[in-house]
Amino acid sequence: MAEQQLGVLKALDVAKTQLYRFTAIVIAGMGFFTDAYDLFCVSLVTKLLGRLYYFNPLSEKLGSLPPHVAAAVNGVALCGTLAAQGVMTTLCFFRFWLGFGIGGDYPLSATIMSEYANKKTRGAFKAAVFAMQGIGILAGGFVALAVSSIFDKKFPAPTYAVNRALSTPP
Question: What is the pLDDT of residue 78?
Fold first, then answer.
């Protein structure tokens, strides 16, 4: 039995790199991409939510989430905290469950790549999977910029310095 298993591993190590291995990189990498996208774009989303939901026309500063709400929204995917209201509660609820998925995805993606790669390409394939985290972070920033730009074009408003009350949608 052990001889057969070693034979399979040896065959995998001497096999040429084929399309199915790159498919495995993409599949495992997309998990890392979406994990990083969500974990790192939420800080940009909280800035936008604070501007919309916690606006104070008497303040010289732009609206921002209260510290306890910001901590719940940012940390709920990692520690399961849930303490907010309305939109924030919904966001926290789904980020909490996302945290369970991320917890399962990280070790499995690395394991999948280790099993599908031969000795020669294993390091490069695992690096390609983990590099998807950086691409996910960049995509989160681009999406936040695009949404902000579309919102600005659809709902033109003066800057906060010019008119505090009209700078934030009702």
Answer: 59
